[in-house]
Amino acid sequence: LAPLRNATEILRSPAAESEDRSRAQDMMVRQIGNLSRMIDDLLDVSRITQGKIQLHRQPVILQEVLTSAASAIRQSCVDNLQKLTVTLPPEPIIVDGDATRLEQVFGNLLGNACKYSGPGTDISLTVKTDTAPGSVTVTVADSGIGIDPELLPRIFDLFVQSSRTLDRSHGGLGIGLTIVSRLVRMHDGNIEARSAGLGHGSEFIVHLPVLESAVTPVAAPAPAAPSQLRALRLLIVDDNKDAADTMAMLQQLHGHETRVAHDGPDGITAAEEFLPEVILLDIGLPGMDGFEVARKIRTMPHLGQPFLIALTGYGTEADRRKALDAGFDEHLPKPADLELLKNWFRTRVG
If one looks up domain 58-209 in CATH, what number appears? Predict the structure, then answer.
């Protein structure tokens, strides 16, 4: 939190130059991203250890997953003056997996390679299909700081990150590799780590079973043609006043008309007066929760059919199903993905 507090003071200072403000804003975006990933990791490891994560498995083309994971980390490699090489076979490799979770696995491994390697180092992602019958091997390698031999047997244990280097400058909680390992096992695969020691880089090798080539993978839907986003009437219902007010401010900057309420009954009253086209509705409201509010709104035909989004800290698949059953159109864990919201407004409402 220290960088965020410092950046806030820079933005508040009348002596700060435009360049200082811009750097502070960029840093705040990075730090918020880091904090969000840490919280997501904590939630994921808790859900995995309690058996609360369910994979949505279907035939997936592995190359598409790996390409997406590499694309997400490529700019970080460029910023760090690192060379990222991705080598994929031309023939589709089909695995029975959850594409989102597999991308999380390889995105984490590539992110670690970038994080623990200095400028001028090499990072590679390679795929081999001839290592064992019916399996594929994906290797993420780097020429970075390496791993202490004493740490190697425990590298997938919880909270090991702190001893990987002499300091904590790389950040993180040391749980990312635990999540990776367990997600790989949930896909009936296994993962191993190799390193010749500190200063000699590292390799993370993932083995996954493959499906017969005759199996047809589910094709990703073609992206819809972008349409012009018109101004909408948005109602934000959240008992966190700062969260509600800042979301309203952001949406106003995009040209939308907004109204804010901080509990369920006030939200229903505001909906009747404002007739919103979109309602961003928190689930954990005091007294009357978001599920009750959604069900009530769906019984009020004079409101039309506003696009209901559950904007909530409750992010499990069971929570999503419960939200849809209550009448929500979409379920979005906090912090909200603003680009996803904008896309929904464009394609589902406007």
Answer: 3.30.565.10
In residues, how long is the chain? 350
Kindly give, in sequence order, each residue whose CB lies less than 8 Å from that of residue 207, ignoring residues fewer than 6 positions away: 131, 132, 135, 136, 137, 189, 190, 191
Taking a C-beta distance cutoff of 8 angstroms, is the pair 204, 140 a contact?
yes
Distances (CA, A) of 37 to 211, 228, 302, 335: 32, 32, 41, 11
Specify the DSSP class assigned to residue 290.
Answer: H
The answer to whether 72 and 105 have CB atoms below 8 angstroms apart is no
Q: What is the pLDDT of residue 94?
A: 94
The separation between the first and the last C-alpha atoms of the chain, rounded to the nearest angstrom, is: 37
Mean pLDDT by 10 residues, the chain (350 residues): 83 89 85 73 72 82 93 87 94 92 92 90 92 88 91 80 43 71 93 92 95 59 56 94 91 94 95 96 90 95 93 74 92 83 85
Q: Given this model, what pLDDT does residue 260 score?
A: 97
Rounded to an integer, what distance in angstroms lies between the CA atom of residue 186 and that of residue 223? 30
The overall longest dimension of the chain from CA atoms, in Å, is 69
- Rounded Cα distance between 59 and 95, Å, is 6
Token representation of residue 306: 């506003």
Q: What pLDDT does residue 28 have? A: 86
How many CB atoms are closer than 10 A to CB 94? 20
Distance of alpha carbon 183 from its chain centroid, rounded? 15
CA–CA dist 58, 96 (Å, integer): 5
Extents of the domains making up the chain? 2-49, 58-209, 233-349
Please tell me the distance from the alpha carbon of residue 294 to that of residue 282, in angstroms, as a whole number: 10
CATH top-level class of 233-349: alpha beta
Give the separation between CA 8 and CA 32, rounded to whole angstroms.
Answer: 13
Sheet of strand 190-194, all strands in order from the earlier edge strand to the far edge:
83-87, 122-128, 135-142, 202-209, 190-194
CA distance 237 to 293: 10
Q: For residue 257, what is the enclosing H or E element?
A: strand 257-261
**Cβ contacts of 203 within 8 Å, gap of 6 or more:** 139, 140, 141, 193, 194, 195
